[in-house]
């Protein structure tokens, strides 16, 4: 390493960027050579640029201290801001009402399931036991299973024909 540094110093200021390099056979006025280049690990970099080690540290610090990306705030006129807030509030009210309707429907379904289990228990204890017994590998008993909105196993039946319905009914 010491030999490389000493040989660079011996070659003169052309590699260090303090003087213009001269090209043989060309006029210096016509040649636009950049004199502000510095050698760094075999790369040519600008003299004012940071050292690669310093740049690496800056990159790491910027990654570690980065904030969560958020969308820029919308700059709106007063009327547009009022309109935006009204639409946003209406959407939140709509979603709240939709959620309330869904929870009420699920509560009523769960209540009916409990009532059916109690009626089965009062009519025949053995049937209630068989219907609600835990099976190996199953986690919840049937009365604990709440109906949920899940997608079907087969999303789209591609081979469906009108004749399929009539064939199943006969």
Automatic annotation (TrEMBL):
GO terms for molecular function: structural constituent of ribosome. It is found in: Mitochondrion. One of its GO terms (biological process) is mitochondrial translation. Its main location: mitochondrion. Keywords: Mitochondrion, Ribonucleoprotein, Ribosomal protein, Transit peptide. GO terms for cellular component: mitochondrial large ribosomal subunit. InterPro entries: Ribosomal_mL40, Ribosomal_mL40_fung. It holds the Pfam family MRP-L28. Belongs to the mitochondrion-specific ribosomal protein mL40 family. This is Large ribosomal subunit protein mL40. It comes from Sugiyamaella lignohabitans.
């Amino acid at each position: 390493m010491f030999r490389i540094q000493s040989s660079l110093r011996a070659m003169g200021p052309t590699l260090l960027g303090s003087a213009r390099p001269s090209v043989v056979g060309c006029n210096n006025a016509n040649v636009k050579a950049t004199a502000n280049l510095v050698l760094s690990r075999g790369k040519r970099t600008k003299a004012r640029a940071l050292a690669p080690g310093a740049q690496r540290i800056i990159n790491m610090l910027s990654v570690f201290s980065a904030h969560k990306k958020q969308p820029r705030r919308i700059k709106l006129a007063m009327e547009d801001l009022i309109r935006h807030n009204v639409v946003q509030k209406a959407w939140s009210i709509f979603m709240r009402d939709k959620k309330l309707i869904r929870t009420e429907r699920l509560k009523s379904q769960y209540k009916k399931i409990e009532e059916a289990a109690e009626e089965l228990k009062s009519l025949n204890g053995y049937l209630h036991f068989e219907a609600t017994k835990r099976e190996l590998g199953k986690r919840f008993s049937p009365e604990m299973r709440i109906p949920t909105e899940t997608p079907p196993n087969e999303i789209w039946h591609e081979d469906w024909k009108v004749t399929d319905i009539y064939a199943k009914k006969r």
